[in-house]
């Protein structure tokens, strides 16, 4: 096979031929499924006559091919590794193909595959070409009619997109169902599911009066785990009507849970397929975080019905058109149904850790990339989360009302079409009358902008001068960057009054919480009529995906942590304060000097623990120290051991100093009420469990006993998992080992709980974590072909910073071994799993060498395009 080639956005052309209607018939068999396709093909009006018909197709065995009923001889078409070409086709014709595929051998989980005993599909981005020969690109949209034939005993349930229109029995114990989907769609939204499934059913009446049947299909043992997903679905449907005026457009909406799935879930038209981890919940098996994740993903996939399906992407460079917008929509939904400030804190802490790292590494790419080798590598935090931040900025720039008008315009103008990011932004510009030309650079420029800010108060004139300077670091292929249009929401907090002062800029009154627009490389903002000396509170709510540096003193930060009217920035001030203290301790550790705890941090925590609050979830976040990964992000060169030692020191110092406060907060938040995944309960549980983590970190006898009892009480998985994690991550193996054993035996039958059991063990800081990984890879519940298991065991270990980065290189070696194996089995998972190694340049010399050595060892293999692309970038 030749070296994988790049595809360029600038090469885009409409397809030579389009398909208006697609008829499929599947005769299911694990080793020899037959797929017959009849495509209604016509020349694209913008393309010249006489061009060859080129169809994508991979791993298909062609049995026959005919045009307008005339079979083609072997010399009338050309078959390659990538597809099929036919010269001299008419302007408009019927193409019939018949192919054979082997779903049972499909470990890549793209196309038609088997998960347990059931058949299912995953077509985004380019999986449909593994089902039949087709123009596998999103700008070819057709109506689909699909007949599925299966064995009545083994596959009593046969599902596809749209509505069932016919069903019947066939000889030899087989049966069939025909499905029709009236909405034209690209083939990446095609889906088929067949197996022995049970359903839970509900109904929803749309605002327009359509009666919709809602079904969640699961294996029988999971019937008791669908309530939360169903309730979330109904909430999401109502929310999209009320917030965006979007209604559902079919009589049936189905969700199916499958155990083997590469991602979270997939928005196939009318038939969403979910990783079981993203849909199944039960108080005894799923944590609060899992409940919230399920709600968010159910909503996300549902919202795609408009932002993605009715209006889709012209080409895969536009992926963020549907993903950025849909993530923004699901984030807004979750903020409306949960504690909004805590949602934002969670989003941003994740974003600043993981997306910033991506944007600063060798795979950095713009939200709209201009070239790629394998699109599967571009389902990234940049496309999804940074894309959502851009949409959020747009919403804030034009205001909600204009944004909603722009959204309405977008959906009505482009309904049934495959469009571009420009089309979306143009609707926002048109609806708001704003010029968004400079703003578009957010889509084409990679890297995280860094803003250096400083300001001074002019006592004589009562003015505050704020100077902002922006700079986006070079990223691969983009050495020079242009200034972006960056909205900075801010307040000036009076140091005497502790209140937001009024903002007057160039004679214009901005209120007490205003937005300034940074467009130049350097810009000065002069606020007048500022009555007292302020501390600026900048980029409130994380108003742009930037790194903002301001020379705050620790006193400033302690002040903002108590007085900022913006909840997000109150939290952020605490994080900045902790980071300054951590910096000192990291330096102390490196220099071998005694570590001394900053008393300002202790006092800040003491006051948090002793101030009444009505949002316990936010308080829990404020009591949580920046993660090792986030601390690492702030360092020019990552010193894994110093970071771990410094953070542990801060945590334990706080626990020692505030032991009684933590104990009290724990007891105040214990509740016997029946579990409900509701904001108030979730907040109390997080607060209690954060307090417990401090107590167990110093192995306080009473704290350890509380953890043991919390585990034994077995009230809900959130509490059980936290207690077990704390014990396993402490040195109390006398308590941890029996607890782990009991938990493992109790849940041996439940794969989603076993995933948690794996993760808890391999993320422990003790030196035996790596040995545990190796041991657990032979556990009967582990499997390399199940992505959830790989993530739970190998992925979780790679996040275990001190053990993955062991100086003997064994952690790196283990990851590389698994990547090499997965490169053959499941390239998409392999190329994601290798990510931590690609960040080698961030570490010290010895680790750099070790990591690079493993990347080179991987490079010597015969690589899938997925892994090839990532490794080449990492070593470039
Ligand atoms: N489009 C899916 C989503 O974001 C993600 C996905 C991509 C799933 C590729 C499978 C394969 O909702
Ligand atoms: Zn999505």
TrEMBL record:
Reaction catalysis annotation: Release of an N-terminal amino acid, Xaa-|-Yaa- from a peptide, amide or arylamide. Xaa is preferably Ala, but may be most amino acids including Pro (slow action). When a terminal hydrophobic residue is followed by a prolyl residue, the two may be released as an intact Xaa-Pro dipeptide
Listed NCBIfam families: pepN_proteo
Protein name (Swiss-Prot/TrEMBL): Aminopeptidase N
Segments forming domain Aminopeptidase N-like N-terminal: 106-189
Annotated SUPFAM superfamilies: Leukotriene A4 hydrolase N-terminal domain, Metalloproteases ('zincins'), catalytic domain
UniProt xrefs under Pfam families: DUF3458, DUF3458_C, Peptidase_M1, Peptidase_M1_N
Cofactor: Zn(2+)
Species of provenance: Halomonas organivorans
Biological process according to GO: proteolysis
UniProtKB keywords: Aminopeptidase, Hydrolase, Metal-binding, Metalloprotease, Protease, Zinc
UniProt EC number: 3.4.11.2
Ranges for domain Peptidase M1 alanyl aminopeptidase C-terminal: 555-876
Gene3D superfamilies listed in its UniProt record: 2.60.40.1840, 3.30.2010.30, Neutral Protease Domain 2 (1.10.390.10), Peptidase M1, alanyl aminopeptidase, C-terminal domain (1.25.50.10), tricorn interacting facor f3 domain (2.60.40.1730)
Record-annotated Peptidase M1 alanyl aminopeptidase Ig-like fold domain positions: 447-550
PANTHER family named among the record's database cross-references: PUROMYCIN-SENSITIVE AMINOPEPTIDASE
Ranges where the Peptidase M1 membrane alanine aminopeptidase domain occurs: 229-442
Signal sequence segment: none
GO molecular function, one term: metallopeptidase activity
Family: Belongs to the peptidase M1 family.
Role: Aminopeptidase N is involved in the degradation of intracellular peptides generated by protein breakdown during normal growth as well as in response to nutrient starvation.
